[in-house]
Amino acid sequence: MTQLQEYASKIEELARELGLDYYPVDFNVTPSSFMIEIAAYGLPVRMPHWSFGVRYIHQLVRQSMGHSKIFEVMFPGNPCYAYLMDTNTVAENSLVTAHVVGHADFAKNNQLFARYHRMAGGNIVEKAAAHAHRIESAVSEFGLQTVEATLDAALALEAHVDIDQEMHRERYPERGTEAGQVPADMFHERFNRLPGEREPQQAPRQAPRLPVPPRPEYDLLWFIAQYAPELEQWERDVFLAVREESMYFYPVFACQIMNEGWASYWHARLLREADFLPHNLYLSALKSHSDVVRPFASNQNTALAINPYHLGFSIWEHLVQTQGMEKAREICRDEDDFGFIRNYLDRDLAEKLKLFVFEADADGEIRVAGRDINQLREAILAPKFNYGAPRIAVSELRHDGTLVLAHDNAGDGRGLDLDRAARVLQYIQRVWRRPVRLHTVDEFGRNRELAA
Amino acid sequence: MDPLDPAAPRTRIAAETPWYELFSRGARDWLRHNDKVREAVTGNLPELLSGSDILTQPTGRTVLVPVKLLEHSRFRLREAQTRTGAGQGQGEPGDVLRPAQQHGEDAGEGQGGTGEGELTFVLELKVDDILDWLWEELKLPDLKPRTSANMQDDELVREGWDKRGPRARLDRRRTVKEAVKRRAIQYREDRKEIPFTNDDLRFRQLVRRQRPAVNAVVMFGLDVSGSMGEAERKLAKTFFFFALHGLRRQYANVEPVFLAHSVEAWEFPEDQFFQVSGSGGTVSSSLFSLAIETLNARFDPSRYNAYLFYASDGENASEDQEPAAAAMERLAGRLNYAGYAEIGVTGSRLRQTPLGALFTDLQGRGFPAAMATIARQDDVWRAIRTFFSEQAEATA
């Protein structure tokens, strides 16, 4: 038994004593080359695509220049998989073990994680590897260029899933229940189905056909998989595979501040209470801890980004101190970052942490805009809306098979980057195989229709 | 070619090596990215190569083209006029954390640097590949060497063996083979070694063959008078580079000759050629005369196809007009083809230049000559196309 294994099992023992509740964690100590790949792909084994190669090379360069240090990568599931770097010290890896246990606890208890765990099952790592394998065999059957065209489109739309939907979604009903009655959105559809809300009705024999889509459809990956006029079965599988992985990543994305904060809170606490650790090991682990949760890069006193480890850690410490562990666990169960920041980052804490809103002009000038708590919360959350992507919906599927997409520019506040949008339309067109159109606005607010 | 090689993961292959150490998916996808860049590059070769960034390797067999990493596009919002974000640290509302960038141009670039597009790398392309592509894309015909009875070359080639011959041409390998064959069929009871006999000896034979001459001399003439500036020379250099490599496709042996002139003309070695700067007036006849002398002195017309590519801004001293025309006419008689590239960076000229008139006249009288104007890098390709397609017609 190595030193690390010994410490790790004692840390886990301590964690259970302190009430952490999690699925078993499968720890792997891996070389840095493999860690870099996991960081680039987001999963230990994932479908091949050249864009991952670009990310890989960026990661490799950052790593070799010492700009970033990977401590761990952890995949929630049952079991969870955690990857530790073999070049990190025993002190660092002891810290990482405690940190991972914190993540595992969060992933089992947070409702958003739990919902996706239910939908996707607890074995996404294996599933992703199976996706990769299927795509590899598609490559050998249909050729790299063909498969790559499908992946270009599917991966470009990675974030365009409807996170309120089920993983396994039926096609739209073909006919409405009542003439002209199409529920405005999924919420109303479910609301109408609540017991007591409406008398159950027999569908009239000749209820009108519903248009496709019956309402703007934001789940682009699903829509293309289901309704593309000439999609091959394997291409459909590619779209659904990307969608499945994307939905798996969503809780990690939407709870990053909470999750990293929770794990940091627990690694700090577990190491503090681990009397079996030698004193000097504790000290160097503590140093790693302060490197991870520090707000600024060394020898600077402002940062133009907020370190989620630092922010989450600070909020959790504050919550546990003021409201107790039981309440903290409740929050951990119920919230995602939106609720967490809006409800629990209060004015006093923001002031104590010296958080501010900044504005950056096109000429490069950056100035402090203010410290208003509401603006601040929204500035922190802004990159997280709609999975970080513009809101684009399928608005119409025409009789000739033309796909019409509409960008909700009013909601997003401005139009799309037109060059990029045109390239994405080309990706889509190559699998849709019929005309594709997209409505958005240009920099002067004029309506623009892009076509491919 | 991968500038990042030193950072590549170390390989350690042992019995207990886990599977993921045996190959790198990241590296494989990175190579796939590079292939895509290469495809994209060949699709945009004229633009890329005409960019001023192209660097020629010392060996001249490859060129380096700086390229950006490909971006896998996603839907993104347009850059906002004013970007807001959350930060942490000291500062009162209104405090400037970073002043505006001074130079207007760089500000845009700096903003663009928020993504992952900051890395660039250098792609090495083989000149031969570029030319293959170019010939295909511009649909250029292959050059035809001028063939005539006296364009034949005698050479001695080996052909067959004989039992007699001078000792120096004894083919030992073949001789031993003969001996082995003979011994195999000669049975001797005492199994003693059978010695070599004179019958075993084989001598290589040579025959005299006639071979078409596939040598070419290409003479590059450059006007280095004061009016040819840095930009003009660069255009001329690009043009010469591709003209030379284009000829190399057709001839086994191309000998370039570099001639420069202002009032007088000199021959230069290649490495000094483009550094030469002269001043003063322009006397083109000096270059044409030097070209004739060089041809006569060193290149036997029966063995060499001769080409001239001449780059100038088109000006010539008025008193030299007649001597130049006469010299060029004499020279044209010796040439397979003469290409004149008029370099005019300062915009299109309405009037015909003296040298332009000279070459137009020459072409009109049926000499194998043509001219093209080069004002921008793009024009280099047009010029190459003009010369190589015209040349094929002229000798057809």
How do the helices and strands line up, and which of them pair or pack?
The complex is a heterodimer of chains A (452) and B (396).
Chain A: H1 3-17, E1 25-30, H2 32-41, H3 50-64, E2 72-75, E3 80-85, H4 90-109, H5 111-120, H6 124-142, H7 144-156, H8 186-193, H9 220-227, H10 233-254, H11 256-273, H12 279-292, E4 302-303, H13 308-334, H14 337-344, H15 347-352, E5 355-361, E6 366-370, H16 373-381, E7 392-397, E8 403-407, H17 409-412, H18 418-432, E9 436-441, E10 447-451
Parallel strand pairs in A: 1-3, 8-9
Antiparallel strand pairs in A: 2-3, 5-6, 7-8, 9-10
Helix pairs in contact in A: 1-4, 2-3, 4-5, 4-11, 4-12, 5-10, 6-7, 6-10, 7-10, 7-18, 9-10, 11-12, 11-13, 14-16
Chain B: H1 25-43, H2 45-50, E1 55-56, E2 62-68, E3 82-89, E4 96-98, H3 104-112, E5 120-126, H4 127-137, E6 152-162, H5 172-185, E7 203-212, E8 215-223, H6 230-248, E9 253-261, E10 265-268, H7 270-273, H8 284-298, E11 304-312, H9 321-334, E12 337-343, H10 354-364, E13 369-374, H11 377-395
Parallel strand pairs in B: 8-9, 8-11, 11-12, 12-13
Antiparallel strand pairs in B: 1-2, 2-5, 6-7, 9-10
Helix pairs in contact in B: 6-11, 8-9, 9-10
Structure overview:
The complex is a heterodimer of chains A (452) and B (396). Chain A has 18 helices and ten strands. Among the domains of chain A are: 125-167 and 209-253 and 390-451, no CATH class; 298-387, no CATH class. Chain A has 452 residues and is of the alpha/beta class. The longest helix of chain A has 27 residues, at 308-334. Chain A is 53% helix and 12% strand. Chain B has helices at 25-43, 45-50, 104-112, 127-137, 172-185, 230-248, 270-273, 284-298, 321-334, 354-364, 377-395, and strands at residues 55-56, 62-68, 82-89, 96-98, 120-126, 152-162, 203-212, 215-223, 253-261, 265-268, 304-312, 337-343, 369-374. In chain B, the strands form three sheets. A six-stranded mixed β-sheet of chain B has the order 10-9-8-11-12-13, sandwiched between helices. Chain B has three domains: 16-71 and 120-137, no CATH class; 152-211, no CATH class; 215-395, Rossmann fold. The longest helix of chain B has 19 residues, at 25-43. By secondary structure, chain B is an alpha/beta fold. In chain B, strand 11 (304-312), helix 9 (321-334) and strand 12 (337-343) form a beta-alpha-beta unit. Chain B is flat. In chain B, helix 6 packs parallel to helix 11 (377-395) and helix 8 (284-298) runs parallel beside helix 9 (321-334). Chains A and B meet through helix 2, helix 3, helix 7, strand 4 and strand 5 of A and helix 1, strand 3, strand 4 and helix 3 of B. Strand 6 (366-370) of chain A pairs antiparallel with strand 4 of chain B, so a sheet runs across the interface.
